């Protein structure tokens, strides 16, 4: 398969309206077969509702970013949403800021912070400072806000994300974003210097260096969180919205900050985080209507259990989603897409490069008559293709693409 | 499948190390079904060892260069090694020079020579001069070295390759490489003129014209080899190494010059040519260790018999490789890739465009449970994809790619 993977390149074919699309994204749902059962979590799960729906769906496999590439959740979702993840690169700092509802503005430079532990020789002993509580994090941020003085024509913001994670935002004129991570990604060595990688980033690197130095002094008496590590520096440049690119008014239902932040970045409306899987499906039903054309329902549990190496936990989440599926079908979305943003095999306890199954259920789908939704069964008529192809297919199935050319 | 087919475009995801990769390339192994047996050579071959290993492997088909494109061995191998063969174009002259250990330097222009036979009207009667011996070739090269005088600010080299094949290298300032082949690729017509195809190649074309004229005079009294045909002119520009692009320290085990030359061009270490298939596998075992991460074992026999239209000869080579497979498996490579650089159906007695099977055996492979390694059985989860995708997959399976993006 090749061009146009990015359906926005044939924007003249975009219809002004069309049917409603639901993306049900089971984060990290793809996997590998378990040694004991000989099945993947999706194969193992008893899913009578999926089994019924997949039969009428067009099925295939998505290679989210590229062959062998292990997508972070950001690039994985960008691909699903029709944004080339190699063109739209999202730094961890920007995503962290968006994930806590921080009002990030064009030109802001954001970086993700880890509170960390260093020994008397400034060598990192714990990159997460023993996973301090969010409460401790808030106290540390207060300390730093009071202690640090940065001398520049602008403002800076330090915000707690959760546990050991925080975000630093520098706002001022002419701040480049290309600064090297100070997080060495390992222990036993000192943090790296925040080197500017372009001339435009020199002033930013200077500010960061000052920030780190003053933070070290301010945190010197802390028991565990006596240092900070920064990574994922990026200058915030807005991305064209889902509406601008595809004419879709979107709604995001997601519990985790990163997915809400990413959705906001793409111009989706974002509901308050649901407390549970049931609540998430309930919010979809409550908000399903004329105000939106595109609904993104994000399920984190599949990835979380995969990351924890908990095969059966992952199976249980899939089965829980299956039990909630009839309520979603009652809404009669014109297009239902079920897929994942990457694989997270429990046996690897990490993201992986393996393709994920996808099913598209719609009146115009060329149904494959497949009986189960999993990595092996879903080798249907959609074939195996890049994640970026999905949005074009979803729009087409929703009647949102006109004839291309005369 | 689309971007990034070329994994080097996401170089930030490259890990510093990882497992060892073995590429077992059966040259031209893909084919078509034989009229008598109704099987391809790969289908026909009895391969108990492959049968066992393929079961635990991820399988698919590779379209080496593009749909309908019939790859030469150079482009086919470049694709397998992760170099876009449409971007990295290798002339036959450069490959011939590298294949005989000629110390080719940046800016040298190389062309492949065939000693040929022409009649009294200068029409080609045999493009290979009756496949003269290498000894005759060496004598002819000596004659030409003594007879030809080229008037330019540089040096020229004429070297025997084997049989009717030699290589001409022009070394001097400002020599362009875009000169048209003089080999008409057929008999009954005179050789073509060495036309410059760019202004920069005008001086080169002049030198080549002088060379051809003086060579014709010098060889006029030869019984069969009374002319030369040149093709594959190219100015030599170094290619980034496998280590620079992918962090791989490579080792090549190949009997034929072209594959050794290509490997050297990509910065692989190259062992002395093995005398036999057994010796090649022996060299792999002898050299398997800490010094290299990537091992390329090239098997020529499959292609040779395919080119000769010898279906059963091709089957026999595949079966011979199968018998040697257990020794390779004993080395416990982290990733074993078995594939081909193109198809050479015996029924066509030539290279063809047909995709070739590929299998990737590794701990993290999403195994397809396929029972035989051939063009029809290997329709597994890897799908059908460009040859260029292979390197990303091999790196991923070796744990040599980090997560891409947050």
Please tell me about this protein's structure.
The structure is a homodimer of 406-residue chains. Chain A contains twelve helices and 14 strands. The first copy, chain A, folds into two domains: 7-88 and 240-397, Alkaline Phosphatase, subunit A; 95-235, 2-Layer Sandwich (Alpha-Beta Plaits). In chain A, strands 10-9-11-1-12-13-2-14 form an eight-stranded mixed beta sheet, sandwiched between helices. In chain A, strands 4, 5, 6, 7 and 8 form a five-stranded antiparallel beta sheet that branches. The first copy, chain A, is an alpha/beta fold and 406 residues long. The longest helix of chain A has 20 residues, at 311-330. Chain A has helices at residues 41-44, 48-54, 73-80, 92-99, 134-147, 202-219, 242-246, 257-265, 277-287, 301-307, 311-330, 390-397; strands spanning 21-26, 58-63, 70-71, 109-118, 124-126, 155-162, 165-171, 227-235, 250-253, 269-270, 294-299, 335-339, 356-362, 383-386. In chain A, a hairpin with a 5-residue loop joins strand 4 and strand 5. The interface between A and B is large, with 46 and 31 residues. Strand 3 (70-71) of chain A pairs parallel with strand 14 of chain B, so a sheet runs across the interface.
Short description:
Chain A is an alpha/beta fold.
* Cα radius of gyration of chain A in angstroms: 22 Å
Question: Kindly state the mean pLDDT of chain A as a whole number?
Answer: 94
Total discrete domains of chain A: 2
Distance between the termini of chain A: 23 Å
- What structural class do the secondary elements of chain A suggest? alpha/beta
Largest interface: A-B, 46 and 31 residues
Oligomer designation: homodimer
Strand order of the largest sheet of chain A: 10-9-11-1-12-13-2-14
Poorly predicted regions of chain A: none
Strand content of chain A is 15-25%
Q: In CATH terms, what is the fold-level topology of the largest domain in chain A?
A: Alkaline Phosphatase, subunit A
């Amino acid at each position: 398969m090749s061009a146009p993977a990015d359906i926005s390149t044939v924007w003249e074919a975009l219809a002004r309206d069309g049917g409603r699309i639901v993306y049900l994204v089971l984060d990290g749902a793809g996997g590998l077969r378990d040694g004991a059962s000989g099945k993947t979590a999706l194969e193992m799960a008893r899913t009578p509702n999926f089994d019924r729906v997949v039969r009428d769906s067009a099925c295939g496999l998505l290679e989210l970013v590229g062959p062998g590439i292990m997508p972070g959740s950001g690039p994985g979702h960008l691909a699903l949403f029709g944004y080339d993840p190699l063109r739209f690169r999202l730094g961890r700092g920007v995503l962290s800021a968006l994930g806590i509802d921080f009002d990030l503005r064009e030109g802001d430079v954001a970086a993700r912070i880890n509170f960390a532990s260093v020994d008397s020789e400034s060598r990192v002993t714990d990159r997460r400072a023993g996973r301090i509580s969010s409460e401790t994090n808030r106290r540390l941020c207060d300390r730093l806000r009071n202690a640090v003085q940065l001398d520049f024509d602008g403002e800076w913001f330090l915000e707690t994300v959760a546990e050991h994670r925080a975000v630093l935002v520098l706002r001022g004129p002419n701040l480049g974003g290309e600064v090297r991570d100070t997080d060495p990604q390992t222990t036993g060595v000192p943090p790296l210097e925040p080197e500017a990688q372009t001339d435009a980033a020199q002033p930013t690197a200077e500010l960061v260096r000052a920030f780190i130095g003053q933070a070290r002094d301010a945190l010197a008496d802390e028991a565990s969180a006596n240092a900070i590590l920064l990574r994922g520096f990026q200058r915030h440049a807005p991305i064209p919205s889902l509406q601008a690119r595809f004419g879709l008014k979107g709604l995001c239902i997601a519990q985790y900050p990163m997915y809400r932040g990413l959705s906001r970045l793409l111009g989706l409306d974002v509901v308050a985080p649901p407390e549970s899987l049931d609540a998430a499906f309930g919010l979809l039903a409550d908000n399903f209507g004329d105000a939106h054309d595109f609904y993104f329902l994000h399920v984190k549990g599949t990835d979380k259990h995969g990351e924890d190496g908990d095969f059966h936990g992952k199976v249980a989440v899939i089965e829980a989603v299956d039990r909630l599926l009839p309520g979603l079908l009652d809404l009669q979305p014109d297009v239902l897409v079920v897929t994942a943003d990457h694989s997270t095999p429990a046996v690897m306890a990490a993201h992986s490069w393996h393709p994920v199954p996808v099913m598209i259920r719609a009146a115009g789908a060329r149904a494959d008559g497949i009986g189960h939704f999993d990595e092996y069964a879903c080798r249907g008529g959609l074939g195996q293709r890049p994640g970026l192809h999905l949005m074009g297919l979803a729009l087409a199935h929703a009647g949102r693409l006109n004839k291309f050319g005369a």
